[in-house]
Amino acid sequence: MRELAGDVRHLSINAATLRRQLTLPGVIEACARRGIPAIDPWRDQVQAVGLARVTRQVRDAGLALTGYCRGGFFPAVDAAGLGAALADNRRAVEEAKALGATCLVLVAGALPGALAGRPTHKDIGLARAQVHDGIAATLEHARRVGVPLAIEPLHPMQAADRACINTLEQALDLCDALDPGRSGALGVALDVYHTWWDPKLALQIARAGRERLLAYHVCDWLVPTRDLVNDRGMMGDGVIELKRIRRLLEEAGYAGFVEVEIFSQAWWTRPADALLDTCVERYKGVV
Amino acid sequence: MRELAGDVRHLSINAATLRRQLTLPGVIEACARRGIPAIDPWRDQVQAVGLARVTRQVRDAGLALTGYCRGGFFPAVDAAGLGAALADNRRAVEEAKALGATCLVLVAGALPGALAGRPTHKDIGLARAQVHDGIAATLEHARRVGVPLAIEPLHPMQAADRACINTLEQALDLCDALDPGRSGALGVALDVYHTWWDPKLALQIARAGRERLLAYHVCDWLVPTRDLVNDRGMMGDGVIELKRIRRLLEEAGYAGFVEVEIFSQAWWTRPADALLDTCVERYKGVV
Fold it and tell me: Which residues have C-beta within 8 Å of that of residue B176, sequence separation ≥ 6?
């Protein structure tokens, strides 16, 4: 198991962690200043500044991109909606390529309209079939462009509105169906927040192996948790066995970055420097 | 598939649904008045009135008990705590027998102290091992007394503090380990709220079969959900495919009651009659 305590060379910061405090150039600057070698930006953060400017700044700072958040949201109510989702995912693939991201993270999507509180239907089986087809179509394009796709299973409490892919096993079944050769073009982004509870986690991480493990995200599960989306904990403040899970990944062959991704109303109200310093300290101490 | 629209003969009311409005005698009276043939009381509700009085009232009203809520909470930090949990579960088995309940519902428990916001450790594997051992010991007693145990898998969002049994597959694995002969002494209580999202739900319901399906609970998943415990929806107000899931159960051999169990801050503020009338109406219309 790798030793993280001494430095930050395996640390990446998901830029959503600081989205209320800083623009993306501010995140890049704050990370570069601390020697943090990698980030994972969100599309809206990139669009707010402009793809060319971000690409240049990332390159100038010598940062790696451990992912690009996010493609996905494939389900729709009609052919026009399905087509629009595919077109948007093609654009996301191209942006990820321009940025030099190691993968495009896919949040599958779920019941159309549910994220806005108005689900148009309840057929989660249909949504899952549309996700299958959407990833299949996007994968063809992503292979040509050369950007791996990382399916991120989301916590079951987000199954209705954000992603109907809810376990690592389910994500890997999809990978095996669409990329049976384990080519490296399709894998998963494993986030401890979404998956720590899973009784089959160890088994499925071993099954995934190096070829499928494209990204690893950490934060913590607070007790009690007060919000289904924006109450993630700082590493060490919750109940997730971070070292045990990282060991499982590394035993399965994962040698990539450890990406901190914290959506938290509480942390978003703190100064950026305090938040980032705490991320570094906890990364070294408890991850 | 059974027709529920015409009457309430397969309806049961989990008494927690009305816990803020009525004492248990009030729930029994309100159900009996509507011809609802079954309830599922909670231990604290029984204790508030007295076991003998409840037993008599249930008998006089001719009600069936589709379960008794709840045994479980097996994990503990030391031998004394583990022993106390076993003793408490033996008492729960005996109370269930006195009441004539068809099963004792088990909410497994999880990290000791987590329900009070102070988890004493993070080892969910240890908690799961203690649940295995606790159910094994309780099962011996329950077999002698003649009360089936129904393991209730709880939603993964409750894995830290309420139950570390979080999928139907995991619950059935436990049943197969402890009761390989499918004797009827050990099975599951399937609640749509906890399990609707599961991509393996249909497969595991078929695996469970009549011998393992000891209780069926319904409510709905609201979009958005604003609380991890007390924001359940009335059937029809959320996104759960109630008829599809009931069909799966009945195809697997389930012929028991359909129990309405709604923990809801919103519904707890409504008059008991309005809540119960709505339960009946939705049971007939959308379940």
Answer: none
Closest residue in A to B110 (Cα) is A197
Rounding to the nearest 10 degrees, give the CA dihedral for residues B161, B188, A156, A226.
-30
Is A223 an interface residue toward B (CB < 8 Å)? Answer: yes
pLDDT of residue B186: 98
Q: Between chains, do B225 and A228 touch, taking CB under 8 Å as contact?
A: yes
Side chain identity at A205, as an amino acid letter? I
Mean pLDDT of B172-196: 98
Contact B103, B151 (CB under 8 A): no
**Which pairing describes strands A104-107 and A149-151: parallel, antiparallel, or unpaired?**
parallel
As to burial, measured by CB atoms within 10 angstroms (0-12 exposed, 13-18 middle, 19+ buried), residue B56 is: exposed
Q: Are B232 and B218 in contact (CB under 8 A)?
A: no
Render pLDDT for B252-261 as a digit per residue (tens, 0 to 9).
999 999 999 9
Residues from chain B that touch A123, judged by Cβ atoms under 8 A, are 241
Mean pLDDT of B262-281: 98
CA distances from A104 to A42, A45, A66, A261, B89 (A): 10, 15, 9, 16, 50
3-state helix, strand, coil in chain B (%, to 5): 50, 15, 35
Pairing state of beta strands A38-40 and A68-72?
unpaired
Helix (H) or strand (E) holding B22: none
Predicted pLDDT of residue A76: 98
A residues 117-146 near B, CB within 8 Å? 117, 119, 122-124, 128
Contact B35, B84 (CB under 8 A): no
Measured CA to CA, the distance from residue B141 to residue B104 in angstroms comes to: 12
- Most distant CA pair in chain B, distance: 53
Is residue B236 less than 8 Å (CB to CB) from chain A?
A: no
CB-CB under 8 Å, B228 with A199 = no
Q: Does B181 touch chain A (CB under 8 A)?
A: no
What distance in Å separates the CA atoms of residue B275 and residue B10, rounded to the nearest whole number?
A: 18
Cβ contact A42:A69 at 8 Å: yes
Using a 10 angstrom Cβ sphere, with 0-12 exposed, 13-18 middle and 19 or more buried, the burial of residue B50 is exposed
State the DSSP H helix or E strand holding residue A72, giving kind and residue range, or none if neither. Answer: strand A68-72
* Crossing angle between the packed helical segments A24-33 and A272-286, to the nearest 10 degrees: 50
pLDDT of residue A131: 98
What's the mean per-residue pLDDT of chain A? 98
Residue A155, both tokens: 């916590």
Nearest CA in chain B to A123: B241
Q: What is the pLDDT of residue B12?
A: 98
The pTM of the full predicted model, rounded to 2 decimals, is 0.98
Interface residue A4 vs chain B (CB under 8 A): no
Q: What is the pLDDT of residues B106-154, one digit of tens each?
A: 999 999 999 999 999 999 999 999 999 999 999 999 999 999 999 999 9
**Neighbour count for residue A19 (Cβ, 10 Å):** 17
What confidence category does residue B30 fall into, taking pLDDT thresholds of 50, 70 and 90? Answer: very high
